[in-house]
Structures are given as structure tokens and as C-alpha cells.
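Here's what a typical entry looks like (LysE family translocator):
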Amino acid sequence: MGIEFLVTSFIVTASPGTGVLYTLATGLSRGFRASVVAAFGCTLGIVPHMAATIMGLAALLHTSALAFQIFKYAGVAYLLYVAWSTLRESGTLKVETEGEAEAQSAAKVTVTAVLINILNPKLTIFFLAFLPQFVSTDEAHPVPRMLELSAVFMLMTFVIFVGYGLLAAAVRDHVISRPKVLTWMRRTFAGAFVALGAKLAFTNI
């Protein structure tokens, strides 16, 4: 396992994106346990992209403009939906106790987190370019090697996202006890999701 792979993986996973934003929002509104569920869902959402890369299906998105556009705009639409949901008091930043979040919303948080990452074609394109760089051309068993690298990347993603969730949960009481701060927090997160959706909309192969 090369240091280059670990450093690159850390930079990619720690960089703010849709998964990080959703984990932070969940930690702020529902507490640490729910943020761990969000981190798990975001990590799970990576699996299809890695599977597509390893099986060579990612080449379809890379070579087919139509497939990429369909996948891309599905992701944009979902990000806009998440932004709209975030603005509502019953949406992404709905304030709940950790017990309520655990009992009522774990499945919903997981599904949302998974979809946020699945509906991002940039991840598939990224892994298509990323993983092969760390597999030697004379590797006797490239698939097991790529699975090993993928497992390390996913573990790093989960650990880093849990860290983000812990930070969000630590300041949670200071946010939810101030209605004006919570309102602006909803607007900020909604705006961030819209911005990420717009960035994705202008992404080309």
C-alpha cells in the first residue's frame, strides 16, 4: 500500500463535497449517532462506483455522452431536492433528539446518503482514472488488488466522515438552541447543495 495512494485518498475523502455536507447537516440536526449512519450511507454509496470501475462498466459513462448526461442530471435533480428539503423544518436539518433520530430516521438517513453518492457520475469517472494508477501493469491478480485498494479507500471515507459528524455534533447544542442560527444554517446548507448541483450540471466527460 503506497503512501501516494493513502495521501491522495485522504485529500479526496476529506475535501468538502455532497457526502461531507450531508454528514455535517445530519450531525447538527440529529446528533452523533445519526451522523455515523450518514457516514455509513455515504460510504455504501461508493460501492457501485467502485464496482463499475473494477468491472469496466465505468467506460460506458466515459465514452457515452448520453449515458453520462442522463446520470448527471438525475444527480443534479436529487441535489436540488435535498436543498429544498434542507430549507424545510421537516427536512434534512429537522431537529430531533438522538433517540428520535435513531428510532425514526436511520433508514431515511441511510437511503439519502447512499443516493447522494450513487447519483454522482463524477465518482465513477474519478475511480476509473484513480484506481488503475495504483495497480502495476504486471500485476498477476489486478482485481483482488483493486478490491484491496477500494476497501482501504472506503474505510478512510467512513473514518473521516465520522470525524466530521463528531465535530458537527459537538457544536449541535449551540446551533439548535438559537432559532436564527438554525435558520441561517438551513439556508447555508441548502445553498451549498444548490452550488454543488450547479457544479455537477456543468461537468463534462
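The two ends are 29 Å apart (CA to CA).

More examples are in the samples folder.
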